[in-house]
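Q: Structure tokens for this one, please.
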Amino acid sequence: MIHLKRAYDEPSPEDGERVLVERLWPRGVTKARAAVDLWLKDVAPSPELRKWFGHDPAKWKQFERRYWKELQSKREAVDVLRQMARRGTVTLVYAARDEEHNGALALKTFLERRIR
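A: Here is the predicted structure, written as tokens:
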């Protein structure tokens, strides 16, 4: 099972293993408060893709397709997440304000389509 949670929200036991899936550490969040088990920078969207997207909902579908293409070349990082999800609950921790258009959500969709 894969969940999503903002880095600014309180961690909970139901989160299972918490994985930060951002290239940059969330501003203003201490390591203790983030309570992540793993920081997997390599699975985050490239800086170029992040800048292009700019959290513009109108670009969401195209962002997803471009990001999924990037993820296909990040096999090791993706495999780490797939193995974790097979073992139990994983929460992808992200920093974006927009809970409906962010890299963690696109990553969750990508993983769920490939775990089965």
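A few notes: The chain has one domain: 2-115. The two ends are 11 Å apart (CA to CA).
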